Amino acid sequence: MTPLNTDGPRPAYPIGVDGPRPAPQPQGRHAHPTRPATLDRIGEADFHRAMLCQNIGDWRHEAVPRGPSIWVAGCGPSQAVSTALCFPTAAVLGSDPSAASLDLSAQAAGDVGVSNLSLRQEDVTHVAYRNQFDYILCAGPLHHADPALPLRRLAEALKPGGLLELMVHNRFHGFMASTFQQAVRILGGTHEDPGGNLEMTLAKLLVAHFPVECLMKDFLTQHPDVSTAGPADVYLSPIEHTFTVQSLCDLAAACDLEILSPGVHTIDRLHGGVVWNLCFESPALQQRYYELDDLQRWQVTNLLLGERSPMLWFYLRRAGAPARRRSEREICEAFLETPFVPTSVARQQFVLGFDGRYRAAAATPYPDAVRDRTLRAVVDEAEEDTPVGELLQRHGYSMSFPDVNEARLRLTTTAFPHLKAAPRN
């Protein structure tokens, strides 16, 4: 493999390009998304694998095996490095069409000392992996291409029982960006070089001199510097494909995939939108809503909440997997019957400096304390011989399905990793 250029010492793992480099893409001109201020390493090697399994209601921690093969498809400048830190016993592959992103990934990997990461410059659309990965993380590539082909490639790359974590743009979140991109395409008069110099010039002029006070102008003022990575991706990338829950379900089915459950994204956590279930004051309306199956219920939530609905961040697997898909209600029922133990691990953070390098900071306890008083009491009393449902009832917690589901999300997931299912014989 041909080494990529890096600044500073080369990390001690294979980095390179297999096959011809893909044609330059707008997202390849920039390292995107913006690098995070910190990268984390958790002291317990199996911690994130267990929480990943719990995200989909697997209380035996069997959905993703120990020492998994992982592919971060469209890894950007940091996601593959973060994944390698989270899964230190895994073999992690990070792929991206952007050489700039891979150079920064290689530099960050050297900064934090990961040794289980390989990087390849490749486009998800053009890979040929078959039955290779236990877990695939993909948060981006389906935005900038015909989504059916890359999703089919992801499905083919999964092992028969593998897990795909997928993020696509919510149609109600990305409307302004996609309409601006279409306008720039038309003004540029060419589709041969999307995101090229002409479109960059046009985008800059529109942002600086937009003539009408309207929602579009409000949107443009949020990203005034077109030349930086984030705004360039918003304004100049090929016209984004956006989704509703229903259109994502339809696409998944066409690619022989099935949706298991939603994930909790960091953005949703910050804004409090961690659940996909609505509560109505009308009992009749509530009953009709909860008579829907999961996918129909989430679609109704997506349509009614619109721009306030959560990110479209879901877990999928190949259709026809040996184990039957469990509904959200079934996951909650198993949750109530499961004993848990509190988690308490050390977190080593690596902080991004002004020079663009990551450096270790002091280790701190992880996770932070639970904010909700009742749930905090449940965590404090959790023990391997007591089902968590018994603890919730002891403290007067509502045992309705939506409340139990929210407790599950806020106690046992990657976003809120306070409880770990106790080992079972």
Task: Explain what this protein looks like in three dimensions.
It is a single chain. The strands form three sheets. Strands 1, 3, 4, 5, 6, 7, 8, 9 and 10 form a nine-stranded mixed beta sheet that branches. This protein has helices spanning 47-55, 79-86, 99-112, 148-157, 175-188, 197-208, 215-220, 229-236, 245-254, 266-271, 283-290, 294-305, 328-336, 373-381, 388-394, 401-412; strands spanning 15-16, 38-42, 69-73, 91-96, 117-121, 133-139, 158-170, 242-243, 257-262, 312-318, 340-342, 345-352, 358-360, 364-366, 419-421. It has 16 helices and 15 strands. It folds into three domains: 15-172 and 241-330, Vaccinia Virus protein VP39 (Rossmann fold), CATH 3.40.50; 175-236, no CATH class; 340-418, no CATH class. It has 425 residues and is of the alpha/beta class. The longest helix is centred in the N-terminal third of the chain and has 14 residues, at 99-112. 36% of the residues lie in helices and 18% in strands.
